Amino acid sequence: PPMFLFLNFLVQVEIFTEEIIRAGSAASLSTLLNRLDPVLRKTANLGSWQVISPVETVGYVEVVDELLAVQNKSYERPTILVAKSVKGEEEIPDGTVAVLTPDMPDVLSHVSVRARNSKVCFATCFDPNILGDIQANKGKLLRLKPTSADVVYR
């Protein structure tokens, strides 16, 4: 019981700390910048991609509505997930080698940090035509080669 109480206390402190950070002005500024980023990128001609974890990889394309729905799944073969919705608190499923999304989670979000630590390619695509082209390759093997501002695929 004493160990359980101590662990419970640590969890409560972590949750409290996360809530304090999310309630602060830095979180509001981050949300504002995320909304402005696509406009600024277009104005500055910076391309259609925000690459969060630049890892070159090869995998089979799988399209899902939300990362949350498959976070506990385990893929048997290397999988490139095209997720229409990524909030930021999800886990990356086992067997996933890349996550591509039109959503833009914060670069310091849980999923972004997990992607970098796990060497999983993670990128936001602002161009629905490019994302649609990748989705059209569902079930096919694709190679992703990200740079700092682009993702080349074939």
TrEMBL record:
Coiled coil: none
Cofactor(s) the record lists: Mg(2+)
Record key words, sorted: ATP-binding, Kinase, Magnesium, Metal-binding, Nucleotide-binding, Transferase
Record domain Alpha-glucan water dikinase phosphohistidine-like: where: 48-153
InterPro entries (alphabetical): GWD1_pHisD
The protein's name in its UniProt record: Alpha-glucan water dikinase phosphohistidine-like domain-containing protein
